[in-house]
Amino acid sequence: MGLFDSLKKNLGDIQKTIETNKDDLLKEIEKLGVKPEQTQSAPQAQPQQNDYSQPFYEEESVYPHAVNDGSVDQFAKFEGIIERNFADCEVKKNVPASELKADCHPACTPVQFMFYKNGAPALAVVLVKTNNYRGRNVKGTQDICKANGINYIRFYQEYENAEDYVVNRIKENL
C-alpha cells in the first residue's frame, strides 16, 4: 500500500469516526463556546472522473502541498520578492493544476506563483526541493504548463535564491 493509499484510508476512517460521533462532537464544541453555525462542515469527497489505478507519486518524491512546513519561509520570501518587483503584474498564488487542465491527476502540484498576461497564464514559478523536482507529481504540472504554452521555471527551496537572481530569471521568462 502506497503512502497516499494509506492517507486516503486514514482520512476515510476519520470521516467515519466524525459521522459516528457527530452529536457528541457538537456538544463538546458548544461547551467551548462555539455555536454550531460557526463551525465549518467537512468537505464531502468528490467522485473522481478518471480511474487512476497506477500510483502517481514516487515514494521519495512527494510534494503534495503548495507549501510544506520546511518551505514556508521560502514561500514568504518569494512572495515578498514578487510583490516588490512585479507589482504591475497579475500574479495568483497556489494555482491548482486542475485550473490549467480540469482532468489532470489530483496529485499534480499547484503552481506557487502564476503570472498572467492579458488574463491568460504566461509563466509558472514553482518552488521545489532538490530531491523531488523530478517526481511525477511535479513533472505532471510541468507537462500541463508545457502543453498549454505556459513558461515554467523552478527554484530550489534549499538554495539561497538571491532577489536579483529571482527577478532576472522571472523577467527573462515573462
**How many distinct helices?**
6
User: What order do the strands of the largest sheet run in, or round the barrel if closed?
Assistant: 1-2-3-4
pLDDT averaged over residues: 77
Structural classification: alpha+beta
**Inertia-based shape:** elongated
Percentage of residues assigned to helices: 25-40%
Report how far the terminal alpha carbons are from each other.
42 Å
CA-atom Rg in angstroms: 19 Å
Which stretches are poorly predicted, pLDDT < 50 over at least 5 residues? 45-49, 51-69
Query: How many beta-strand segments?
Result: 4
The biggest beta sheet reads: 4 strands, mixed
The SSE order reads: HHHEHEEHEH
Tell me the fraction of residues in β-strands, as a range. Answer: 15-25%
Describe this structure in words.
By secondary structure, the chain is α+β, with helices and mostly antiparallel strands. 40% of the residues lie in helices and 16% in strands. It has 6 helices and 4 strands, in the order αααβαββαβα. It has helices spanning 3-20, 22-31, 72-85, 97-100, 136-147, 163-173; strands spanning 90-95, 111-117, 120-128, 151-156. A 4-stranded mixed beta sheet has the order 1-2-3-4, with helices on both faces. It is elongated, with a radius of gyration of 19 Å. It starts with a helix and ends with a helix. The model is unreliable at 45-49 and 51-69 (pLDDT under 50).
